[in-house]
């Protein structure tokens, strides 16, 4: 743009310089030889006397362009006309170029600094737009994860409800609501479910209410992840939990029995199994236990027990005499028990004369009483060395 302007100025200056000699010559001829011009009009002619010039006009070169008689000679006029035409053509070309590249008056010309600033602003805006996209993508991903977690929580709640339904009669008045949650979490872990809590932590110390009819007095508010829900417990006895069992015979597996007795309006548990000593193998579905002088004790199991649940309830602190007079050779799942809460295992297998099973995997609480745990259980002698080594006790103290 600037180059075009300079070219225009240069051409204009050159044209002016070229015209100056012609103008000067024309003025000189007019001064010296043309003071009196004959103007022909048909056959008549008259001599014209030029008007007197004032001093100012003489000083300015005697300009008299407005006087009809001051016309230049033919040659000079033709040359002047030719140059004027060429000049006008050049001027026209320059004007065309200027018009074609004309910058709108309302648009400022950007300097290098303004272009740099615009570029920086553009980078900033792009960065902000990209950041917004990332934030939106992050929120979308979080929302998808939330929905997936919510769906998983709902699915797990259904599983927890099934567990509670199965274990609804497995608690006594010595349990608190926290004890209940801790025990349910043990079973939930088998299904790879974790995180079950009470909705209100302060409810943890509340003891379960005695409810011999079941389903009326123990509504517990639970939470699993994003889901809040309630469950109702069944039969809750005073200081006792009933034992549930069935005969191993295939045709009787659906007939679950228990050791609940009602006498004089009270609900108690039957701690003897005389009526079930008939040689039929019994599967215990729910371990019963009760409070006595040794602690919260595992109720004596039936004589022909062949299978027990693989989890010993957390609340049990004593298995004293719990397998007294056992007739079975072995009991399925008993080797998987965790006895880390058991303090008293004295004489647990007293007179279990046919029983022979490796229980070295048992996890015993440090300092637990294991005195005479296998007293008169002579078939256990073949396992005692291994058991004593694992439990870190003397063999002689086990029998």
Rg to the nearest angstrom?
59 Å
Number of helices: 6
| DSSP, total strands | 18
SSE succession: HEEHHHEHEEEEEEEEEEEEEEEH
Based on secondary structure, the structural category is alpha+beta
Strand content: 15-25%
Low-confidence stretches: 1-15, 21-74, 105-109
Shape: elongated
> Percent helix among the residues?
25-40%
* Ends distance: 114 Å
Q: Give a short account of the largest sheet.
A: 4 strands, mixed
Mean pLDDT: 81
**Widest sheet: strand ordering:** 10-9-13-16
Textual characterization of the structure:
The protein is α+β, with helices and mostly antiparallel strands. Helix 1 (2-32) packs antiparallel against helix 3 (74-100). A hairpin with a 2-residue loop joins strand 14 (289-292) and strand 15. It has six helices and 18 strands. Residues 1-15, 21-74 and 105-109 have low confidence and may be disordered. The strands form seven sheets. It has a four-stranded mixed beta sheet, with no helix packed on it. A three-stranded antiparallel beta sheet has the order 4-5-6, covered by helices on one side. 36% of the residues lie in helices and 16% in strands. The radius of gyration is 59 Å and the shape is elongated. Among the domains are: 151-236, no CATH class; 239-398.
Which key features would you list for this structure?
single chain; 3-stranded antiparallel β-sheet; 6 helices; elongated; 16% strand; 4-stranded mixed β-sheet; alpha+beta; disordered N terminus; 399 residues
């Amino acid at each position: 743009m600037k180059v075009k302007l300079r070219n225009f100025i240069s051409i204009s200056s050159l044209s002016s310089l070229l015209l100056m000699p012609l103008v000067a010559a024309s003025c000189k001829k007019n001064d010296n030889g043309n003071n009196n011009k004959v103007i022909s009009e048909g056959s008549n002619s008259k001599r014209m006397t030029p008007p007197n010039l004032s001093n100012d006009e003489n000083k300015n070169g005697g300009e008299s362009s407005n006087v009809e008689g001051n016309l230049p000679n033919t040659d000079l006029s033709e040359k002047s006309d030719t140059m004027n035409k060429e000049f006008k053509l050049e001027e026209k070309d320059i004007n065309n170029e200027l018009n074609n590249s004309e910058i709108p008056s309302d648009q400022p010309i950007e300097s290098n600094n303004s272009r740099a600033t615009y570029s920086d602003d553009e980078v900033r805006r792009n960065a902000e737009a990209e950041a917004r996209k990332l934030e939106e993508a992050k929120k979308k991903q979080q929302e998808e994860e939330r929905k997936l977690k919510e769906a998983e929580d709902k699915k797990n709640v259904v599983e927890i409800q099934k567990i509670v339904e199965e274990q609804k009669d497995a608690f006594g008045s010595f349990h608190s609501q926290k004890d209940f949650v801790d025990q349910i979490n043990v079973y939930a872990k088998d299904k790879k479910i974790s995180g079950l809590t009470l909705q209100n932590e302060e409810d943890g110390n509340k003891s379960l209410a005695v409810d011999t009819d079941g389903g009326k007095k123990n509504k517990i508010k639970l939470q699993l992840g994003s889901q809040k829900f309630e469950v109702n417990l069944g039969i809750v006895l005073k200081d006792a939990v009933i034992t549930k069992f069935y005969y191993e015979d295939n045709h009787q597996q659906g007939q679950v029995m228990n050791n609940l007795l009602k006498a004089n309006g009270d609900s108690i548990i039957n701690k003897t199994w005389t009526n079930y000593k008939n040689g039929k193998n019994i599967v215990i579905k729910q371990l019963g236990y009760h409070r006595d002088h040794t602690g919260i004790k595992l109720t004596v199991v039936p004589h022909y027990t062949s299978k027990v649940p693989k989890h010993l309830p957390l609340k049990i602190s004593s298995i004293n005499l719990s397998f007294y007079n056992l007739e079975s050779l072995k009991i399925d799942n008993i080797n998987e028990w965790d006895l880390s809460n058991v303090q008293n295992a004295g004489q647990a297998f007293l007179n279990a004369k046919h029983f022979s099973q490796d229980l070295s995997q048992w996890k015993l609480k440090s300092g637990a009483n294991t005195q005479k745990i296998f007293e008169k259980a002579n078939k256990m002698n073949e396992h005692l060395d291994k058991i004593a080594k694992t439990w870190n006790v003397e063999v002689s103290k086990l029998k």
